[in-house]
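// run 5 | inverse folding | seed 20
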């Protein structure tokens, strides 16, 4: 059993393959956290819970009545701490009652254990077959009000994953406000921990940073209405010195695409508390009597063998138990996108010529990007008008799609449904559909405002107008973009006392519309995007199997972006393309081989006019496409190993290994060339120690243990940003 309850001890124990998580109900009814770490069988760990009378750390009334001064919620590790009752560390829940008071003391009420994985109404979450997971529900009730909380624990034993979520119920006769609702808390019995997070900006997302958790709060988050380019809703908690292949670490991934916070602190007695959830800034949720609020899911993955093992477990989980698209298990087409070749300036004939040039080289999918709708000749007009621009497409999207399909190619389309320009028919007819505060001039980004996705009439308009295009043109692929953050958050459809809900309701509206499209168009390959990687999170992956990793297509910059992304997300979900040089974002020139080497560590495609290439370059592209198809299963479904850190080293090296450990692919990209350079030795990972392997077509045979422990030297790389790869296969003797 993955979940065990011992009623005589009042202890819940959750086991995964390599970890144990234990909770107890205290003598006063509070839910106490005993342990989360390496697996411990058949052990009551409540002996770890000890208290002494500490000054300025008070006790619940019942404890004080019997002089139990060592029992304090300010020092005990808790499962779901609340604001206002004497725990002065980070809390998970702040409730404002009808009388204006802000306190809730949650006491154990009941539990359920059942096969399968819980799901959350209107929210994405990890899913599982009945035999793949177990769920624990623990119900807590406030002693002095009608607030009830259900904590959810999903245990996916084989992945070493425990998920957390909760629902807040108002069972009373009066409404309440939720001023803060976090999804989880974990208290660790140690103060030697670090938090690894992934910061960035537009066109340079998910840069790894590692900081010690000390006294005082360490947090990352977003109040931009999206998970953001600036901070990703995935962090790693680990002990000092943990590396790729050794040490205990915990990955924490928030399955949500809006405002978030991940926060850690060391308390007064050197314990470490971690909380994660919706960012409380700007959040105030009104809950009617007999209504409830669902908090999003946090996925915890445990590893006692370093961050590499943690990442591979999370990759497998997301590929198998988060992404639902059929394209997770089908080969996706190699695509060609026209944006960097034409931007807004194109005609139907020009697009067909670009597609033809791609088809001759093996491209399977042509994608028409921005500029095909409304009066869209620049970024200040047309958004919201989802009908074809007949000046560019005289026969509509349908006419172009028919020409592309006649070439034997699939056809794809770019959309940005959440946005609107003031210069559009939609705005002129429905200005109130924007997020905009009355009597204030709004903040404007990229010439666009944001549609109020919390409104059903807005979502219905978007679905009806866009689905008409999808049906008429028989679209095979859609890229769903979002090119600005939220500001001036105010909805014309919501009363004043509920305006604090709008940011969250916006995300729920996006999810509802995505679910509608995905359900009704399951044969379309959907790709998420937000100016590249501004909404690269597990919430989007629930609806779409891939996300455009970054608007930065510079191959050298991409080694760092894709490196950081790989800690929390599988390679198969990273949108990556070969673009023209000098690069559109950096002005750097990199060889066609290196550009493809980096893009193959993703979904792979091209973002240029392939017809402008020289004949020898066209031959290179042909061979690249064939090579990607050859290695597709290893790259998309294999185990991924980070062999170097491109942020710190002069060469980026990564490796894919198939699940049977019979085949491997190693990629090498030089980030800096030096005269008289020393040898670079690479140590492979993930092979079978006693098996024999051959590298490429060489005659020499290597034992797996030698390749992993002794390593081998790669050839000296000369020239700026050169690259190569090795194909390694097991041989029979």
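// decoded
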């Amino acid at each position: 059993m993955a979940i065990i309850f011992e009623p005589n001890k009042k202890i819940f124990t959750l086991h995964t393959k390599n970890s144990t998580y234990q909770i107890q109900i205290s003598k006063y009814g509070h839910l106490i956290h005993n342990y989360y770490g390496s697996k411990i069988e058949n052990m009551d760990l409540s002996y770890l819970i000890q208290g002494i009378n500490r000054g300025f750390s008070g006790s619940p009334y019942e404890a004080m009545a019997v002089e139990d001064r060592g029992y304090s919620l300010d020092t005990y590790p808790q499962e779901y701490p609340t604001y206002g009752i004497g725990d002065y560390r980070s809390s998970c829940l702040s409730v404002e009652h009808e009388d204006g008071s802000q306190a809730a003391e949650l006491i154990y009420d009941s539990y359920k254990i059942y096969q399968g994985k819980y799901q959350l109404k209107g929210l994405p979450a990890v899913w599982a077959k009945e035999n793949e997971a177990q769920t624990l529900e623990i119900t807590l009730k406030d002693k002095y009000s009608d607030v009830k909380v259900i904590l959810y624990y999903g245990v996916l034993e084989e992945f070493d994953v425990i998920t957390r979520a909760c629902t807040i119920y108002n069972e009373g006769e009066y409404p309440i406000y939720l001023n803060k609702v976090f999804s989880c808390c974990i208290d660790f019995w140690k103060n030697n921990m670090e938090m690894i997070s992934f910061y960035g900006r537009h066109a340079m997302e998910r840069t790894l940073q590692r900081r010690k958790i000390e006294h005082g709060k360490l947090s990352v988050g977003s109040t931009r209405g999206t998970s953001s380019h600036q901070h990703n809703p995935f962090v790693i908690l680990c002990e000092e010195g943990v590396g790729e292949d050794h040490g205990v670490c915990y990955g924490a991934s928030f399955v949500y695409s809006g405002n978030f916070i991940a926060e850690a602190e060391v308390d007064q007695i050197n314990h470490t508390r971690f909380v994660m959830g919706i960012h409380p800034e700007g959040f105030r949720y009104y809950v009617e009597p007999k209504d409830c609020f669902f908090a999003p899911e946090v996925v915890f993955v445990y590893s006692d063998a370093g961050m590499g093992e943690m990442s591979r477990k999370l990759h497998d989980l997301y590929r198998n138990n988060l992404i639902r698209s059929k394209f997770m298990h089908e080969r996706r087409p190699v695509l060609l996108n026209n944006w960097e070749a034409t931007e807004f300036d194109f005609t139907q004939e020009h697009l067909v010529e670009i597609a033809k040039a791609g088809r001759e080289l093996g491209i399977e999918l042509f994608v028409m990007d921005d500029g095909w709708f409304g009066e869209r000749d620049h970024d200040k007009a047309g958004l919201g008008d989802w009908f074809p621009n007949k000046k560019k497409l005289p026969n509509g999207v349908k006419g172009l799609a028919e020409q592309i399909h006649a070439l034997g190619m699939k056809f794809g389309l770019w959309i940005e449904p959440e946005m609107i320009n003031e210069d559009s028919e939609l705005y002129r007819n429905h200005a109130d559909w924007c997020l905009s505060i009355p009597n204030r001039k709004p903040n404007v980004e990229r010439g666009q405002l944001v549609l109020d996705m919390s409104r059903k009439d807005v979502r219905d308009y978007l679905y009806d107008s866009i689905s008409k295009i999808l049906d008429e043109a028989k679209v095979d692929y859609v890229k769903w973009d979002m090119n600005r953050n939220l500001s001036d958050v105010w909805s014309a459809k919501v009363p004043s006392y509920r305006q604090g809900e709008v940011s969250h309701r916006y995300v729920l509206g996006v999810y509802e519309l995505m679910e509608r499209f995905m359900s009704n168009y399951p044969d379309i390959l959907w790709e998420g995007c937000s100016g590249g990687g501004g909404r690269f999170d597990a919430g989007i992956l629930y609806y779409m199997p891939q996300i455009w990793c970054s608007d930065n297509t510079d191959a050298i910059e991409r080694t760092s972006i894709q490196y950081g992304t790989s800690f929390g997300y599988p390679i198969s979900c990273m949108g990556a393309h070969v673009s023209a040089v000098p690069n559109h974002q950096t002005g750097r020139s990199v060889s066609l081989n290196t550009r493809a080497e980096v893009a193959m560590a993703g979904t792979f495609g091209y973002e240029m006019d392939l017809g402008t290439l020289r004949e020898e370059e066209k031959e290179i592209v042909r061979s690249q496409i064939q090579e990607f198809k050859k290695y597709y299963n290893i790259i998309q479904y294999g185990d991924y190993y980070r062999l170097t850190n491109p942020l710190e080293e002069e060469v980026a090296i990564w490796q894919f290994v198939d699940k049977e450990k019979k085949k491997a692919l190693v990629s090498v990209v030089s980030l800096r060339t030096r005269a008289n350079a020393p040898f670079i030795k690479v140590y492979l990972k993930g092979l079978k120690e006693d098996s024999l392997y051959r590298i490429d077509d060489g005659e020499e045979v290597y034992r797996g243990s030698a390749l992993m422990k002794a390593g081998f030297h790669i050839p000296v790389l000369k020239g700026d940003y050169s690259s190569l790869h090795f194909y390694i296969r097991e041989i029979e003797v």
